[in-house]
Structures are given as structure tokens and as C-alpha cells.
Amino acid sequence: MQYLVSVIDDKENPGRTDRQPAISEFNERLIAEGHWVFAGGLADTESATVVDNRGEQAVFSDGPFVESKEYLAGVWIWEVPDLDVALKLATEASKVCDRKIEVRPFR
Amino acid sequence: MTDAREAVTRAHHEEWARVVAALTRRFGDLDIAEEAAAEAFATAVERWPADRVPPNPGAWLTTTATRKAIDRIRRENKRDDKQKEARMVHDDEPPGTLGVIDDDRLRLIFTCCHPALAVEARVALTLRMVGGLTVREIARAFLVAETAMERRITRAKAKIKAARIPYRVPAAEDLPARVSGVLAVLFLVFNEGYLATGSGADPVRDDLTAEAIRLTRLIRALLPDDGEVAGLLALMLLIEARRPARVSAGGELVPLHEQDRGAWDAALIAQGHRLVRERLAAAAAGVAPGRYQILAAINAVHTSARDIRDTDWSQILALYDQLVRLDPSPIIALNRAVAVAELDGPEVALAAADRLEPRLAGYHAFHATRADLLRRLGRGQESRAAYDKAIELAGNTAEFAYLTRRRDQLR
């Protein structure tokens, strides 16, 4: 069972910026335990572009699809047997990243 | 004919959770388990009057429900994928390897009370899946529309399935964190049994109170050192002990001060008192008691008095003061006011109760308490109005009868 694990940061109250060594160490463990599928940190929301080609011609707009103080800072994909395992890891991940974590199953 | 109908009703009370739990283990799907269980009971309603009640109703119902579930899955598989069939034969945890306690219903409770579900959803789902209450009954207990409650339950079941909330009692190290939510739900199940809602219903549903007590005992066996588990069990036992004296032969609620104390269940009281003493010893050793332990202590004081006049109200008030600091809920404050009335008189208590009006205006017990205090102060007119309001809001038939008689006594 795969879960999308989103790391959520807050523009008004951002998490600490010194987390990378701890995150790398946590990733090593995810790999060793067979939970790691993919991970990646995202550049700032300012760097996002939204494309809408549902109409007659494609419209490009600068910035993220939704403006809010909370935003997606990075993602993991984990392979775990059930939600309890995912939540246990997410509890650790939140501490390790110093940020909120959303856990959401793939269909 | 009526015997068979009674047998179905009894089986529904006693076996519903067991059937749902067994099917959930077998098929790993709450929806299938619940629908197949409901179909099995519907079949029992048809068959039992004609074929006689089977010697083991629980086994009959589980077998019938299992067949219904398999039929259903086969039908769906013809249209859908093969995934469900795989799940059907895949029973990864055979009974007997479940650790200290092998109880399907306990696993069902921990699934329904998973912290990933909203608290209201946990309670509603537990009442439905474990308590066997209908959606209509649950909706009435929570004062929401039936369709809203249906949605809440459907959504919770969908989340359990989609997010893969496992069907298991959590591992030992996760138990303490998970247990407080479970205790809250069990207390609500108990309360629904103790003061059942619904106009046609029995005023007391002892199947629900018994099930809540049974499950709390199981949790106590899992966590023998948890003070709040002991506290909740003691609290339930001490309330349950008074049940035989609580509703009159005429179906009317008998308030504490009018109850025949000789009818109280002495064995349950002794068990409850033993647990409270155990917690008092822990408190003396410096472990701060939680709300269930304090509530249990209050009930221990009530059940220690042979006569209402011997009740140690100052002790009760001291316990309420402790409880208010821990749990500032207006309902606790209202109950504290009742103790205040005994010590400082109804006038002081009424002033305390009136301050709670903004938060308790929709709560029947608030108006019933005010009505009683006003009656004791000789303010008949206002008392009548308060009784009217309480009667309008009361959901329990015995309470309704009591409040109506009280009001009609006022001239």
C-alpha cells in the first residue's frame, strides 16, 4: 500500500532550516526498512506555474494554484502495510522535518 | 411466533457485534460485514418463526451472514475486479495469535476508535458497528438529522477502507495513546444504554451497558496499571449497580434520593468500591487522578451512604471542585450545583445553575435541575415553565414520565 506523505510548511511560522542532516538519516532508515519509494523537496511556491488548457488556448499563470500561508514543501512516497505504520513514521517525520505532515493513500 | 421474534431481538442485542466482528476479520471490509450481518438478521426474522429458533443463534447468524457476504462478493466480482476475491480467501491473522486478548469485538472497537477518524465519527461508528444501534437511534442521540449521521458513518467507513486503517488491537506501546479515545466512546455507549433515547424504546438498554462494561473489563486486562481504565470501570459498575432501583414498575425514573437502596446490586458496588480504593491508594502515593477516577469516587460516596441523609455532601463537593479544575465542562458545573444545593441551599445552587444558561439552554438536565431548585424555593410558576422546557427536550421515556408527574404536582 502506497501513501503520499506531504511536508507542509507555514510562511508565517516556518520550520527550522537546519533539518537536512536529520532528514537524510531518516531517509536511510526508510530505505533500510523497505518503506522508501521516492522523496523530494520542492522549490519555493513562487517558482510554480499553473497551466490551464481546458479552454480554447493554454493559459499560463505565475505562482501556485492556491495562495495560502501553508504550502507543500516536499513529498515522500512510502510503501507500508497499513495506516498505522504510515502514521507512526509520519509522527517521526514531523519531528525530523520540524513541519506538519499529511498522509494520504493512493487509490 | 412472538417467541421467535423475541429470539431475534435478543440475538440482535447479544450477537450483532460478534457477527460483524467475525465478518470483518474474514473479509476485511466493514461495509460488507455490516450489510451481510443485516441481511442475516432479516433472514432470521423470516425463517425463525417457521423453522424454529436454531439451538445456537450466534453460529447460525454468522454462517448465514458469511454466505450472504460471499454471494455478494461473487456478484460484484462478475462486474468488478478480482481484488475482493483475493481478500476473501486471505485471512492473515488466524485467531489464537492475537496476543493477550483474542476478542474480535475489541479489535472492532479499536478500528472504529482510530485516532485518524474525527471524534464524532468514532463514536457514531462504534455505536453502529459494535453497539448495533440503527442510524436513526444514533442520529437521535446526537441531535442531528438522520441523513447527516448516515453521511458521517459512510464517510468514516470509506476512510477506513481507502486509508487502510487496520483491524487490530494496537501494539502494547501504542495502547496508552489510543486508549483515552476508546474510553470516551465506551462511556458514551454506556450512557446511551443507561439513558436510552427514543420514544418507543426501553428507557434502559442493559445490552449496551453490559457490553460497555464487558469491553472496559477487557481493556483493563490489557492495561491493568492504567488509572483511568480502572476509574471508568469503577464508575460504570457503581452506576450499573443502581439500575434495579432506577426505573419504577410504572416506567418512571426514580431519582437518587427516592431510590430503594436495598435494591442496589451489592456485588457490583463492592467491585466498584474496591477499584476506587485502589485508585485512592495510588493518589495517596502521588498519582494525580483523571476525570473518570474522580467521577467514580463521587459515585463511591453516593453508594456508601445507606440513606440519602447519610450522604457526605461536603466530600462530594470537594470532589466536584477537583473535577471542575480538570474538566471545565458546563455539565460538570451543573452537577456541582446539585451538590451545592445540599450544602448551601437551593438559592445559592440556582444562582450557580443560572450562570450556565448560555451554554446549557438546549440540555434537558439543565432545565430539570432548575425546575427542582425552583420548586424547593416555592417558585411554582417558574418551576412549571422549567419542567415544560425539560419535558420538551427529554429523550428518555422514563425521564419524560417522571418530569411530567413532577410538573403536574405543582399547583
UniProtKB/TrEMBL annotation, chain A:
It holds the Pfam family YCII. This is YCII-related domain-containing protein. It comes from the Bacteria. Belongs to the YciI family. Residues 1-98 form the YCII-related domain. InterPro entries: Dimeric_a/b-barrel, YCII.
From TrEMBL, chain B:
GO terms for molecular function: DNA binding; sigma factor activity. Keywords: Sigma factor, Transcription, Transcription regulation. Residues 178-278 form the DUF6596 domain. The keyword Ubl conjugation does not apply. InterPro entries: DUF6596 (IPR046531), RNA_pol_sigma70_r2 (IPR007627), RNA_pol_sigma70_r4_t2 (IPR013249), RNA_pol_sigma_r2 (IPR013325), RNA_pol_sigma_r3/r4-like (IPR013324), TPR-like_helical_dom_sf (IPR011990), WH-like_DNA-bd_sf (IPR036388). It holds the Pfam family DUF6596. Residues 109-160 form the RNA polymerase sigma factor 70 region 4 type domain. One of its GO terms (biological process) is DNA-templated transcription initiation. Residues 75-94 are annotated as: Disordered. Residues 75-93 have a biased composition (Basic and acidic residues). Residues 18-78 form the RNA polymerase sigma-70 region domain. Belongs to the sigma-70 factor family. ECF subfamily. PANTHER family: BLL6612 PROTEIN, BLL6612 PROTEIN-RELATED. This is RNA polymerase ECF-type sigma factor. It comes from Amycolatopsis methanolica 239. The gene is rpoE.
